[in-house]
Design goal:
360 residues; alpha+beta; D-amino Acid Aminotransferase, Chain A, domain 1; OB fold (Dihydrolipoamide Acetyltransferase, E2P); 5 helices
Length: 360
Amino acid sequence: MAKVPRSPPRSKPLLGHDNGQLQSSPIRKRNRAQPQLLFDPMPDRVEPALAALKAKAPAGNFGWEIKWDGYRLAVHIEPKGVRLLTRGGYNWVDRFPAIAEAARELGPATMILDGEAVMLDEQGRSGFNLLQASLGADGRKSGNLTSPAILYAFDILYLDGHDLRGLDYQERRHLLEDALAGHEGAIRLSEEVDADPSALLEHACRLGVEGIVGKNRDSKYRSGRTGDWVKLKCVSSEGFMIVGYEPSNGAHGGFASLLLAAYKGNDLIYVGSVGTGFKESQTLQLRKMMDKLLWKRRQPPVPYSGKHQVIWLQPTLIAEVEFRAWTTDGKLRHPAYKGLREVQDNADVYRIKDGDDEGA
């Protein structure tokens, strides 16, 4: 005969009282749907740590991984829901539904993941132009734009009531690996590669990857470009301000090239033009955008001594441009257009430093 389940025992009396003994309330199981008690308040937003560009790997205790080419995102998994924050602080949860759904599946734990939203080609390589194409023509068409992009997570800043930014990177890395164990969907672990960085960079360049990133395993999480994180690139790719365009003689009404500028101190200076890497649909879309930003002053926005006809523009649009090197007169060598950065992405415009060809 099956045993009859016993009723849960009542709590033992704790204190005496004039009218009898007082008893504690029965212990109830926690409702997992309720938010957990937070020991450290979850930051509303964290400015990201940025990698400093280096010509060679620095000495020290660094871990190395592939450099992903996409949009930097902070994934906030919170008691009230999920947010995907860009560098500019905009919530792009509607633009990356696959990443958002994968984040919900990581709950009910609360956490903040730091990573890169990317689109991969058939060889598994990320490409900024692929990501832009997934969002439409440079992500600027009207309508509800969504992308099937995935996220490679490379750091964890907060976990279940604990702010992890004060921990060493190697400790955060262990917690990140544990949090993502068994998850191979739209949020994936950006794996460390156990190899000499020089050999790893050579291999990455041979495979057509943009470069590698190294992180000091003994460093805390510090926002900005502190030197704790470094990047080594096969081909340089940076953001430059579009300050004008050369009209096209073709019948399609696009443009021949874009004139680019970088910052030197507080001033914009001309660093050359880019006329390759465009698709016809991009040139037409860009031309419409640029014609709304015509420069109406007599002097151009940057000093210019060229002989070409130029339509000058308000310095507003930021182009991501790939290039091989700098010429002796400070111009981009072999530039190719990759796409437009967005205001919400808070993209950096390249800054030239005296005596420093690595930029900022």
